[in-house]
Amino acid sequence: MVSVAYRFLAGGALLVGYCLLRGIRLRFSAKDLLFVGLQGVFLFGVNYWLVYEAERWLPSGLVAVVFSAIVFANVVNGRLFLGAPVRPRVLAGAVLGILGVAGVFLRELMEFSLSSQSLRALGLAAGSTYLASIGNILSARNQRAGLSVQQTNALGMLAGGAAMALVSRALGKPFAFDGSFGYVASLVYLTVFGSIIAFACFLTLLGRIGADKAAYVALTMPVIALALTTVFEGYRWTLPAILGVSLVLGGNYLALRK
Hints:
By secondary structure, this protein is mostly helical.
């Protein structure tokens, strides 16, 4: 939780500096300020906290399957809050994609056993997914209001980081800092590449093609992770994993083709 605060406070500070250098204004109306702050708290704060808590008790594969439901959440929330159309092809592609992700992590899913702690963790993963979806919809709303991704991410990351710092303090979490190379290097990587650059790309994509289609990124992440682990960790492909990746790619084509 404290590391999430460090990550997004640093990311927000760097983006504020970028905006000042580029002459991008950071003045908002009271209404826009509220929506930008909410985007930050949900997308750059509580969402991460909940998913990390869930992964303490659940296999990461199962969390990935739960989080892939963000495609459906974005469709529903986009319709409710933005009046966006429900595109059947996107829904059909999402079904294929989620089945594919389940195939990729079939072994972990089969080893899962229900317990009170596991059910609580499933609830946390589902809550994280829904709040991330609300953050997506808020970003779409802010872009429709004429606010740039750089503006909203700068203030939003500061808001999300500050919210996590306050919650951490309220729960008595120690604000120690690990000065080892491994921790600092990973924090820098997540701040610059995993936050500033990745969210700039994703939210720009969201503004261009819609929250429903952009959410398909959540289904392709496990495929990219498998490719990396094949190169660096000697992952051995199984038939369910091959079929799962094929379903993800097929659903991607179905959802995104013109």
